[in-house]
Specification:
Length: about 450
């Protein structure tokens, strides 16, 4: 099945609308051993069609506008963090301790971009003076478990066969690419006619995500007109460069959910969509389980993205794109006999982000026809399974990719002069850029505008 067809089916789309999507193929985009270009095309195509569908409904159009997926735009956007310049400075995408390391019996991949994860990694290894020597003395499995127990992040590099035999892989394989569920019988959503406005005009999105996947999804919802408020805990701020890449179109606030429940409940009372990107269960104690949210805000759409999925022995573990690549066999597939490798982009993050946005758009469309609060769940590990085992590798032709320049733009912001990748989600009459650049992290009030 074509990747756009597959992704569209995963978000519950009507197959009769698929002819409304056209593609512009380009060779040399997102090259690797695995079909990354097809995955990226599928995720963005499903998102563009979902946006066109909802936009047509709100504008009372007889026909859904045509959506267009250009491999050049998609390939550029999937490495947006690499194209970003802030006053001419390229951001740091990986900290020195976020890398592959040799162990006594193989390799591990660590992630220590955030200061608290770096501290926990070093504490687990007990050798802050020489991480390399500490890891070389231990087995990959021992490092994985010891670092996890300390609250850090490290995974053993596995072959595809080793991952397939792992209990977490079996748990992931038992779930669909996008889990979709109706939570209750809340009244059907009334979507007022938006005229020529954007599909999500008037929709409020509470963004409780971090890193790349969730923020890419909410960045896309902001592109399509949503009022997106990103909320971070003051004690764990987002990395500034990461915010600069994924903060387009959004406002940014800080709020301590432990200390200011009233402010959060006021935000929730006005939210149409709540998106969370923490490990499953981590926010439940704050009343953020989907069922609890729907009870307090009937008709809400809840979207959850995680690394490993919500079930299985790793269901409550932290994770990042690079770690999921290492654990699922992707690093071995893309590597060499000498060392593990990586995909040409953090495609699990970006792809899952666009799928999340597509799933939210479709949930809002479905609510206009049917009742009920909704929840959609996605995981990087399930996207990895699609990439490695399920995706059709066809459709690789097209004109040569001449470089990212046609899909880059510049603008001023409070952060400085930004060069950035333009959004790849495109349909007839849709937006070509975000309404606002990213602002200073945490500078906005924790309230709806």
């Amino acid at each position: 099945m074509d990747s756009i067809d597959y992704a569209w089916a995963a978000v519950g789309g009507d197959p009769a609308l698929l002819p409304r999507v056209s593609t512009v193929g380009r060779t040399g985009v997102l090259q690797g051993r695995l079909p990354v270009r097809q995955l990226a095309r599928g995720c963005v195509g499903a998102c563009a069609l979902a946006a066109a569908e909802l936009g047509a409904r709100r504008a009372r159009l007889r026909e859904v506008p045509e959506a267009r997926v250009d491999d050049g735009a998609v390939g550029t956007a999937f490495v947006s963090e690499r194209h970003l310049l802030i006053n001419g400075r390229a951001p740091v995408t990986f900290a020195p301790l976020s890398r592959f390391w040799r162990t006594a019996d193989g390799w591990v991949r660590t992630h220590a971009n955030y200061p608290h994860h770096r501290e926990r990694l070093l504490a687990a290894l007990g050798r802050p003076d020489s991480v390399e020597a500490a890891l070389a003395e231990r087995s990959a499995a021992d490092v994985e478990e010891a670092v996890y127990a300390a609250g850090g992040l490290a995974v053993a590099v596995r072959t595809p066969g080793e991952w397939a035999a792992h209990p977490q892989a079996r748990a992931v394989a038992g779930r669909p690419l996008v889990e979709r569920e109706r939570l209750d019988q809340a009244p059907a959503r009334v979507l007022p006619s938006a005229g020529p406005a954007l599909p999500l005009d008037g929709i409020r999105v509470l963004d409780l995500t971090r890193v790349i996947a969730g923020p890419v999804g909410t960045r896309t919802l902001a592109l399509l007109g949503a009022d997106v408020l990103r909320v971070d805990p003051p004690q764990y701020p987002e990395l500034p460069d990461q915010h600069a890449d994924t903060g387009f179109g959004k406002r940014s606030a800080t709020l301590d959910l432990r200390a200011d429940r009233r402010a959060f409940e006021e935000l929730l009372a006005g939210a149409d969509v709540v998106v969370t990107g923490y490990r499953p269960g981590a926010l439940d104690r704050f009343g953020l389980a989907p069922e609890a949210l729907a009870e307090r805000r009937p008709g809400v759409v809840v979207a959850q993205v995680s690394a490993w999925g919500a079930s299985g022995p790793w269901g409550r573990r932290r994770g990042f794109d690079s770690l999921v690549q290492a654990a699922t066999g992707i690093a071995v597939t893309e590597g060499s006999a000498r060392r593990p490798g990586a995909l040409p982009a953090q495609a699990l993050d970006h792809g899952t982000g666009y799928l999340l946005a597509a799933a939210v758009l479709r949930a809002l469309t479905e609510q206009a026809d049917d009742s009920g609060s909704r929840v959609v769940r996605l995981s990087l590990a399930r996207t990895a399974l699609w990439l490695t085992c399920e995706i059709d590798a066809g459709g690789t032709g097209g004109a040569a990719y001449g470089g990212p320049e046609p899909w880059l733009a510049e603008r001023d912001s409070t952060l400085g002069r930004l060069r950035y990748a333009l959004p790849p989600v495109a349909y007839l009459g849709g937006p070509g850029d975000w309404a606002r650049p990213p602002g200073t992290p945490g500078a906005d009030p924790a309230a709806w505008s």
